[in-house]
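Anyone up for a design puzzle?
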């Protein structure tokens, strides 16, 4: 990623905080195995400050959308407190296979690590950490899914696929295929707005899969193939940050990525209400806890 490409993904900037539109497929920081990450390109976002910005929270590699950065240590500490206390509102858009029968609800399933050999893979664990997700149906459709065809489910944790060797899944995530719609209309898809009340690792992906409606493109908890699938249909659509005491909370919206648009349109999405420009900086920067760049 060039410096120009990094700057082009800027959605919001002031003296304390930046919000960028994270692309799907990019890790936000280097993992144990190394490799390129977004952090490697944060020097392009200094805008005159002596240090590059740093992550105020995390998004999965395959998740796109609003990613918040703090511009200096004091800003990072303040943002950290806001995220930890739950004061930051986050809304994700997810396209799921199948879907709930009702239009809104709350998922309360504690989560724990699957096992030490699976890294960050998670599972529903009654003895795990509390995890709460609010969800609301935004639209429904019948869509011919590109996900691999399941022909048998012999045991929990494994999915048998026609022409492909069985792939291990976390226990409890061998989900049934979504129900087919009327003849010729393929499988049912649902567009959800999901709000994580807590911030556990893979929370939205695990919660949706545990309810029987995995996120389209999920190669860990869902039915997507390991290679050549549609991409994870999970997008951090909006973040609302109450950063300043005497100002309204800062609301930032990230445009829908290309790989999610077709299915969203099938579910009734009418496209962006207005063009979201990554180069527009809302309002002048003010020196509140840091010098102006």
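Challenge accepted. My sequence:
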């Amino acid at each position: 990623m060039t410096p120009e490409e990094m700057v082009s993904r800027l959605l919001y900037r002031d003296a304390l905080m930046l919000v960028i539109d994270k692309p799907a497929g990019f890790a936000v920081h280097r993992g144990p195995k190394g490799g390129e990450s977004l952090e490697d390109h944060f020097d392009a976002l200094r805008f005159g400050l002596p240090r590059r910005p740093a992550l105020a929270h995390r998004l999965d590699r395959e998740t796109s959308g609003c990613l918040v950065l703090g511009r200096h240590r004091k800003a990072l500490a303040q943002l950290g407190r806001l995220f930890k206390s739950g004061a930051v509102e986050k809304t994700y858009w997810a396209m799921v296979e199948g879907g709930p029968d009702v239009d809104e609800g709350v998922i309360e399933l504690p989560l724990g690590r699957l096992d030490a050999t699976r890294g960050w893979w998670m599972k529903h664990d009654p003895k795990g950490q509390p995890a709460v997700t609010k969800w609301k149906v935004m639209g429904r459709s019948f869509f011919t899914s590109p996900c691999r065809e399941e022909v048998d489910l012999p045991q929990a944790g494994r999915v048998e696929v026609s022409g492909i060797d069985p792939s291990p899944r976390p226990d409890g995530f061998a989900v049934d295929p979504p129900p087919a719609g009327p003849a010729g209309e393929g499988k049912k898809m649902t567009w959800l707005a999901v709000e994580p009340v807590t911030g556990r690792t893979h929370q939205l992906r695990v919660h949706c899969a545990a309810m029987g409606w995995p996120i389209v493109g999920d190669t860990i908890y869902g039915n997507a193939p390991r290679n050549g699938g549609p991409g994870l249909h999970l997008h951090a659509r909006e973040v609302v940050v109450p950063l300043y005491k005497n100002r309204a909370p800062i609301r930032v919206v990230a445009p829908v990525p290309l790989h999610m648009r077709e299915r969203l349109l099938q579910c009734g999405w009418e496209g962006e209400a207005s063009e979201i420009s990554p180069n527009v900086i809302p309002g002048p920067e003010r020196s509140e806890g840091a010098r102006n760049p």
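A detail worth pointing out: The first strand starts at residue 10 and ends at 13.
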